[in-house]
């Protein structure tokens, strides 16, 4: 198979030139097919449901950080805020994450999302919840991550989950 580069020549693409078309070289007729650019991350949002039960809320003075990373550890999106109290039995969100790197969908498919709490030193915190993260891409496709019964405390502040 030959590759047409941006300058219209056929041959191996140079390392700094992204292919614009793929061509085949056989005895049969074949025409060049344009290479479609990989969909890029355009939006990310997360929602939470806090479980019912005494003391399972997220305190108003506990900071929550959500970080989405590619498989290689590159940060794609992030949010950190106090958000106020998440009361027992409540839905909170969706909260839009800041897109830091417009990662390709293939780079996030095996990535992860890390949820971290940082309670104030005085009262601590114990929060039990479900979450749903949606990642949107330039071609309108989506990837997601979710989990039920996640528990974060002042002694176990962070958990990570795969993106699929």
Summarize the structure.
By secondary structure, the protein is mainly beta. It contains one helix and 13 strands; from the N terminus they run βββββββββαββββ.
Describe this structure in words.
This protein is an all-beta fold. The protein has two domains: 1-35, no CATH class; 41-162, PLAT/LH2 domain (Lipoxygenase-1). The chain is 2% helix and 48% strand. The chain is built from one helix and 13 strands; from the N terminus they run βββββββββαββββ. The strands form three sheets. The chain has a five-stranded antiparallel beta sheet with strand order 9-7-6-10-13, with no helix packed on it. It has a four-stranded antiparallel beta sheet with strand order 2-1-3-4, with no helix packed on it. β1 (2-4) and β2 (10-11) form a beta hairpin. The protein is elongated and about 75 Å long. It starts with a strand and ends with a strand. Residues 1-18 have low confidence and may be disordered.
């Amino acid at each position: 198979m030959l590759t047409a580069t941006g300058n219209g020549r056929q041959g191996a693409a140079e390392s700094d030139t992204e292919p614009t078309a793929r061509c085949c070289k056989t005895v049969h007729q074949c025409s060049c097919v344009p290479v479609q650019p990989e969909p890029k991350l355009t939006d990310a949002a997360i929602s939470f449901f806090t479980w019912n039960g005494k003391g399972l809320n997220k305190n108003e003075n506990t900071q929550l950080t959500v970080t989405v990373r590619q498989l290689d550890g590159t940060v794609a999106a992030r949010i950190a805020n106090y958000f106020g109290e998440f009361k027992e039995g409540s839905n909170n969100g969706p909260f839009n994450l800041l897109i830091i790197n417009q990662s390709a969908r293939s780079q996030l498919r095996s990535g992860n999302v890390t949820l971290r709490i940082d309670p104030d030193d005085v009262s601590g915190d114990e929060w039990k919840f479900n979450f749903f993260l949606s990642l949107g891409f330039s071609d309108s496709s989506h990837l997601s991550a979710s989990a039920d019964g996640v528990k974060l405390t002042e002694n176990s502040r962070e958990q990570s989950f795969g993106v699929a």
